[in-house]
Amino acid sequence: MLFSRHSPRGTLAASALGFAVVLLDVSVVNVALEALRLEFATDIAGLQWVVNAYTLAFAALLLTSGALGDRFGARRVFSWGFVLFTLASLACGIANELATLVVARLAQGVGAAMLVPNSLSMLQKAFQPGEERSRAVGWWGAVGGLSLAAGPVVGGLLVTHLGWRSIFLMNLPIGLMGLFLTLRFAAPDGEGHRRCLDWPGQVAAVIALASLTASLIEASSLGWSDIRVQAGLLLFIVALAGFIWMESRTKTPMLPLTLFRNPTFTISSVTGVVVNFAYYGLVFVLSLFFQIQQQLTPQQTGLAFLPMTIVLVAANIVAGRLMTRLGARRILVLGLGLAACGYLLMLLASIDGRYGMLIIPMLMAGSGIALTIPTMTNATMSSVDASRAGIASGVLNSARQIGGMLGVAVFGYLVRDTAAQAFRHGMYEAMVLSVALLFLGGLLCFVGMPKVIQEGIAASEKKLRPATLRKHGHST
C-alpha cells in the first residue's frame, strides 16, 4: 500500500519540513514589507497586521494544538495542519485586498500551531529514547534554525525576481511534499488520551492576545485617546483576569499556573518574552529602514540581514558547548548583555544612517540572542520534572511568540511616521527600549536564577532523557 510504510527517517523529513516552513514564514515576510505597502497602499499599521496576524494565531493556539494531538493523534493533527497551512498560503498568494491577506495569515498561524508541537510528538513515536532520538531532534532543530536564518535571503530573491506573492506560493510544493511524507512514512496514530481540553481558557487567551495586539497596532493611527483603543485595552485586562481565574480553578488547565512557582521557569519565560520582543521588533524595523529609508531592493535587504542570520546559526552551536562549562545563568547574563550592547551600538547607526555602522552591532545582537535561546530552553527543561517537560517547553515557546508579537506592535508604533527624521527618531527610541529590557533581563537572570542552574545543567540532564531535554529546539 502506498501509505502504509512506516519509516523513522521519512517521519523525520516530514517533521523537519513542517517546522522549517513554519519558521520560514516567520522571517520571509519582512523583506516584502515595502512591496506590500505599495501593493495595498497601506501604512505601518497595515504591515504590522500582516506580520502579527500569523504570530498571534501561532502563539495563542500552540498549547491547545499539542493537546489536540494527544487526544486525536499527532499524525492526524499534523496532517491537517499541513493542509490548512498550504491552503492558507495559497489564499495569501492570491489575495487582492489587505483584509483578505490578514485573514489568510491568521489561518496560516493556526496551521503553524498544529504543525510544531505535533511534529515533535511524531518524532518521539518514531525514534527510540536515547541517542537516536536526540540526534533526530537535533536535525529537526537544525533544519528549523537554517530556515529561519535563510528566510530574509530567500524572501529577498523571490520578491525581487518573482514578486511578493511568490513568498507565499512557494509553500504549496513544500506543503504537498510534507503531507505526502507524513502519510507515506509516519506511523498511524494509536489510541489517544481522553484528556479534557480547556476551551474556556483557550477562548479567554485568544481574546486577551487579540485585543492587546489590536490596541497596540491601531493606536499608531487612532491615538491612545480613541475609545476603540481604550476599549480594546479594557477587554484585554478583563480577558486576562478571566484567563488567570479559570486556569487557577480548572482541573485540566492549558497553562498550569503552578509552573510559575519555579523561579527558573518563570525567569526563563520572562527572558523568552524579552528576547523575542527585541529580535522580532528589530527585524521589522530594520526591514523598513533598509527598504524605505535606504531604498534597498528586497534582494539587497535580504543580504543586508546576513551578518545577523549567519551568526545566529554559529552561536547556537557554540552555546551548547558553553552551557556545561559556564552554567546556564552565566550564559544567559552574557547573552543578554551582549545583545544589549549590540542594540546600544545601533543607536549610533540610527543617527548616522549608514549600513556599514550596523554590521558590528548586528553581529553582537545576533550572537547574544543566539546564546540566550538554547540556554533558557535547557534551563527550563532542567527545572521541571520529566513528566511536565512537554507543557513547560510549550509555555516557553508561547511566551516567546507573544514577545515577538508585542515587539512588532510596539516597534511599529514607534516608527509609524515614515518621514526620514521621524522614522530615525522612532528607531532610536526602539533601540533605547530594547537596551533597557535586555539589561533588565540580564539582571533578573543574575539575581533570580538559583545556584543549581548557575553551576550548570549537567546534573539535571541526567534526570531527563536527552530528547526530552532538547524538545522544541533552539531556534529563534
TrEMBL record:
This is MFS family transmembrane transporter. Residues 11-453 form the Major facilitator superfamily (MFS) profile domain. NCBIfam families: efflux_EmrB. The keyword Cell inner membrane does not apply. It comes from Thauera linaloolentis (strain DSM 12138 / JCM 21573 / CCUG 41526 / CIP 105981 / IAM 15112 / NBRC 102519 / 47Lol). Its main location: membrane. The keyword Cell cycle does not apply. The chain crosses the membrane at residues 12-33, 45-65, 77-96, 102-124, 136-160, 166-187, 199-217, 229-246, 267-290, 302-319, 331-349, 355-373, 394-415, 427-447. It holds the Pfam family MFS_1. It is found in: Cell membrane. GO terms for cellular component: plasma membrane. Keywords: Cell membrane, Membrane, Transmembrane, Transmembrane helix, Transport. PANTHER family: MAJOR FACILITATOR SUPERFAMILY MULTIDRUG TRANSPORTER MFSC. It is a multi-pass membrane protein. GO terms for molecular function: transmembrane transporter activity. Belongs to the major facilitator superfamily. EmrB family. SUPFAM superfamilies: MFS general substrate transporter (SSF103473).
